[in-house]
């Protein structure tokens, strides 16, 4: 019985310590940058995947019916590069 009481006490202390760590410290020092851009997708085009490349570019994978292509958006220069599907 004393063993169970000790386990409950240890679990309670671990829970309190976990809450202290979660609330007490800043979890992230990342800057957020709002990016507003219109990819001008037509009807039937659907973004299937978004990936970050080298912290400077965003890769959008787009599907239209059975065709797949990609758009690379450069965050710094705001340029777009379109990559067509290679057969």
Would you kindly provide a brief summary of this structure?
The chain is of the alpha+beta class.
What does this structure look like?
The chain has one helix at residues 2-24; strands spanning 45-53, 57-64, 67-74, 80-83. It is α+β, with helices and mostly antiparallel strands. The protein has one domain (2-83). The longest helix is centred in the N-terminal third of the chain and has 23 residues, at 2-24. The protein starts with a helix and ends with a strand. The relative contact order is 0.12.
Question: What's the arrangement of secondary structure elements?
Answer:
Layout: H1 2-24, E1 45-53, E2 57-64, E3 67-74, E4 80-83
Antiparallel strand pairs: 1-2, 2-3, 3-4
Question: What's the mean pLDDT score?
Answer: 79
Number of helices: 1
Order of helices and strands, N to C? HEEEE
Class by helix and strand content?
Answer: alpha+beta
The largest β sheet comes out as: 4 strands, antiparallel
Rough outline: elongated
What would you report as the Rg, rounded to the nearest angstrom? 24 Å
Distance between the termini: 71 Å
Number of strands: 4
- Low-pLDDT runs of 5+ residues are none
**What percentage of residues falls in helices of 4 or more residues?**
25-40%
Strand order of the largest sheet: 1-2-3-4
- Report strand %: 25-35%
Question: How many domains make up the coordinates?
Answer: 1
């Amino acid at each position: 019985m004393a063993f169970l009481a000790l386990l409950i006490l240890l679990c309670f202390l671990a829970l309190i310590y976990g809450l202290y760590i979660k609330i007490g410290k800043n979890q992230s020092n990342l800057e957020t940058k709002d990016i507003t851009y219109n990819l001008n997708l037509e009807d039937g085009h659907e973004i299937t995947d978004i990936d970050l490349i080298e912290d400077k570019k965003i890769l959008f994978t787009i599907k239209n019916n059975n065709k797949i292509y990609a758009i690379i958006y450069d965050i710094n220069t705001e340029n777009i590069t379109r990559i067509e599907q290679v057969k």
